[in-house]
Amino acid sequence: MFRSFRFSDQFQGIVRGGYRSSTFSNKIDPKKPMCLYELSGGSCNDDSCKSQHERDYQMTDEDLIIDLARYAEGSTPHTRQLFADMLSAKLAHLRASGIHNTDLLVDSIVKNHREFVKDPTRVI
């Protein structure tokens, strides 16, 4: 639910850290407890700690691109496939053109979502 807010035209202006904000872009496993030592401000160096750590749930730039690109827009399977194909082609074109900058790729993904939806009040 929170992740889809990243497609809002207001997201970048409201959220500190933008698309890299760990509040909205993360790999948190809701079934795995967080490390209490890290939650209290420390840095866990215990190799036997089975809890979830910041290093486990932070997204790399590539994780972020993949996560945003996975949102399939459309109300039918056919429409979602058309959207996914269009987005995949645009990203492939950008990368083939030598564009590998994460910010530019993420901006393109978000822009394509907005253009496809054609309703600025609807996020996803």
Automatic annotation (TrEMBL):
Pfam families, per the entry: zf-C3H1
Domain of life per record: Eukaryota
UniProt keyword Metal-binding, yes or no: yes
Keywords: Metal-binding, Zinc, Zinc-finger
InterPro entries from the UniProt entry: Putative_zinc-finger_domain, Red1, Znf_CCCH
Record domain C3H1-type: where: 29-56
One GO cellular component, as annotated: exosome (RNase complex)
Coiled coil: none
Molecular function (Gene Ontology), one example: zinc ion binding
Zinc finger (C3H1-type): 29-56
Keyword NADP assigned: no
PANTHER family with a match to the protein in the record: ZINC FINGER C3H1 DOMAIN-CONTAINING PROTEIN (PTHR21563:SF3)
Protein name as annotated: C3H1-type domain-containing protein
UniProt source species: Lobosporangium transversale
Upper classification of the organism: Eukaryota, Fungi, Fungi incertae sedis, Mucoromycota, Mortierellomycotina
